[in-house]
């Protein structure tokens, strides 16, 4: 049973990571097809869509999977099936309602985003309405994924995620290319096709789930014949518990889109106030689409490692094992900082070639990315501290911390943009997230009785290693600039690969020599070293 669970978790993790990688890489060809004009339109639609989809699902699929797993363990299979059927109706209903609200509210959302220019309003409205159709399918599909996960069957979820991304990205790129290059159509049509791809991707993912359902229905029906039938559970009570427990995490899940939404609804207004409305949309694309997509890369990797430790935190807290809890929290914070800090610093240092490799050579874009990259550390810290609050059953404070952060962002965004343009928006985000993290840390310290002494000491050590890595990478980067140009895509990739390899080598060596890497990752480090040594020996034999 344990090996099956581990295998399932591994499959789901691989599927999720592959899905995320696909979701990041496609922006490179997409930018080449539609340019900045297209990415501006695209981003205007996707921030509201992300918020609507989070509200429409409201954490129900994940919660339903947990309840189904619980009642299956009790051999009350009929309860899980009843919950699944009612969940499908609820998700279909909330999806249709969310679609109607977004579709009908699109003109108002467009006006809030860009002001009252008629041509632009019509374009943004059209694109928003194109993406809204996905809201009908995605919540429904998410619940079916949750149902399979509740039966410890992770393959359907993993494959449907990957297929959804492949279909969406293929439709996005081919659709935009055919509209612009084959039919010589308008940009708004190309971007509308690209955003409608969210609907086609969801259909692709749903068809995979339907196929799995067809294949596994005999087995699932057979489980019902072994149902004990001793429990009469009120679905109403279960859903009440689901929504109460899920609500704080819906807010955490949409924290980043909410911060982006504040930029979307205030950026143009602030730029217009300082006489720069003409460049506002291009600047907005650089901030909220181009730079943000790159900054999220180290966040996804680091939080994935750190959040894996959260179940252990929950277990230690529930058992009242203070020593184990402190150890788990130490590990979580240190792993997070050990992975995120060098990635953010490296990204900031190599911003110019990275921006060129992803999009085009643009000094403004590179400058914004360089400023924005360190904020990745805050994004990661917020996600993990919020998850820890869940682990110690103090999730109510996540609502308070998020609201304080959003209030600071909302209050400071316009004045800071008027003062510093794009970098003002980045600073407002930094201050908002910092406030939220400080509140989360205070709550963790108070309720988990966690002393941060070791983390502060290790953070200083990690910062010293990252600083030495930065110096080494900076030297190599400057030398490479004598021979290679960050204005060329191919040469930018070469600069990134060589500089990053040197930086990672310095950082890993310091982590290894100090013993910090082994303390954080245990025997994984020894396994990696043995593989590298084996690889080295093979090379020597071949030569």
TrEMBL record:
Subcellular location: Cell membrane
Key words, A-Z: Cell membrane, Membrane, Transmembrane, Transmembrane helix
Pfam families tied to this protein: Polysacc_synt
CDD domains linked to this entry: MATE_SpoVB_like
Transmembrane parts of this sequence: 12-34, 46-68, 88-106, 126-144, 165-184, 190-214, 242-262, 294-313, 333-351, 363-385, 397-416, 422-448, 460-484, 490-510
Entry membrane topology: Multi-pass membrane protein
InterPro entries: PG_synth_SpoVB, Poly_Biosynth_Transport, Polysacc_synth
Protein name as it appears in the record: Polysaccharide biosynthesis protein
Species this chain originates from: Neobacillus rhizophilus
